[in-house]
Amino acid sequence: MSTSRRAAARLAGFSLLAAALGFLTVFTLLALSFDYPDILDRSAAEVLPRLLALGPTGRATWAVYAVVPLLLVPAAAGLAALHGGERPRVLVTFAAVSAVLAGLFMTLGLVRWPSMQWELARGWATASADQRLVLGAVFDGLNTLLGRYLGEFLGELMLNLSFLSFATLAWQDRLLPRWVSGFGFVAATAGLVALWRNVTGVVAPVADLNNALLPLWLIVWSVALLRVRAPATPG
């Protein structure tokens, strides 16, 4: 393997590791302070006051959460360079574009919390009953459009398609251990099933499993990438 491809593997590995650790950190903080993600299914009357009660620290946590998916962009660049080589470019390009779109879609979905939803929460505190009807409708609309459709469904669809594609590439070129690719297939399949959780409750157990599989898969994948070695330079 050339030194440039080794550098690409390191870029992808560090980006994915940072994404995994960032996701675990903010997800845990929001679960403890905001009853996340269960609170997402509740009404504006319950969610908005609790959102505002998080204060500046909670708002900053949401802002960091929104940035975490953008780590998929450098990861995609590194993986595309790593798996490019002499291989036909279709699958590599599809995998990289899917990862970049996933990062953008998921960031757009998450950034509503420290921005638009935060302003709704501030207005809710002093709003009349009629005004709260309007604020509640806007709140629900943002959750549906930016949250469920864009961030969760499209974002996770692109994310898991990229996982599936990159796992296939890793399986084909054998740069990583076969079991790592196999883990990627399992994680991608679970993610593709879990993204239907807003349509049917049947997949709820898979969605819960996916919340644990996602960071674990990213950590395993990143460590495998960081262990890729360039050939020794002749002395």
N-to-C SSE string, H for helix and E for strand: HHHHHHHHH
Task: State the secondary-structure class.
Answer: mainly alpha
Counting H and I runs of at least 4 residues, what is the number of helices?
9
Question: Which bin fits the share of residues in helices?
Answer: over 70%
Largest sheet: none
Q: Name the shape in a single word.
A: elongated
Number of distinct beta strands: 0
Which value, in Å, is the CA radius of gyration?
A: 20 Å
Quaternary organization: single chain
The number of distinct structural domains comes to 1
Strand residue percentage = under 5%
Summed over residues and divided by their number, the pLDDT gives a mean of: 92
Contiguous low-pLDDT stretches (5 residues minimum) are: 231-235
Distance between the termini: 17 Å
Give an account of the 3D structure:
The protein has 235 residues and is mostly helical. The protein has one domain (3-226). It has helices spanning 3-34, 44-53, 55-67, 72-83, 89-110, 116-124, 129-173, 178-194, 204-226. It is elongated. The protein starts with a helix and ends in a 9-residue tail after the last helix. The model is unreliable at 231-235 (pLDDT under 50).
